[in-house]
Amino acid sequence: MNLLKLFISFLKIGAFSFGGGYAMLPLIKKEIIEVHGWMTTKEFIDILAVVEMTPGPIAINSATFLGHEVAGILGSIVATIAVVLPSIVIILFIAHFLSKFKSSPYVDWAFKGIRPVVLGLIISASITVSKDAFIDFKGFILGTVLFYLISFKKLHPILAIIIAGVTGTIIY
């Protein structure tokens, strides 16, 4: 039964998340933590740290790791297939009809309407994760400094991850 719940949860996440992995985080958190209680917020944040460091799309990595935590290897497979299935179906559908409608103003308007929602989902995910990631003032300072360095000084994200890991090991 857990596999069916896992499949349905990640199918919903894949079907209703526009804008990639970061936009999916609020839906993933709601399904995994709030709806099913498969893990705590702290466990979710720890898995997100691993997902961020591994190569590949965040949504697929999240589904794979979270599926494994819930139901082992089979859970990884089920969650990963479920999260990509809606995209595959949608892409095949769009590819079939896009040549007919690519110049339609309605298609352009629809995508212009979706963009702000994607931004809102990403901001929501950031705020949600920030609440639980900043466990004390030291973490808040570290996160703020790294955000500044990445955003304004163009520090490479891999270097930021290494700095955060080393700094966390030292101060905690």
Automatic annotation (TrEMBL):
Keywords: Cell membrane, Membrane, Transmembrane, Transmembrane helix. It is a multi-pass membrane protein. It holds the Pfam family Chromate_transp. It comes from the Bacteria. InterPro entries: CHR_Transporter (IPR052518), Chromate_transpt (IPR003370). It is found in: Cell membrane. The chain crosses the membrane at residues 6-25, 45-67, 73-97. Belongs to the chromate ion transporter (CHR) (TC 2.A.51) family. This is Chromate transporter. It comes from Tissierella simiarum.
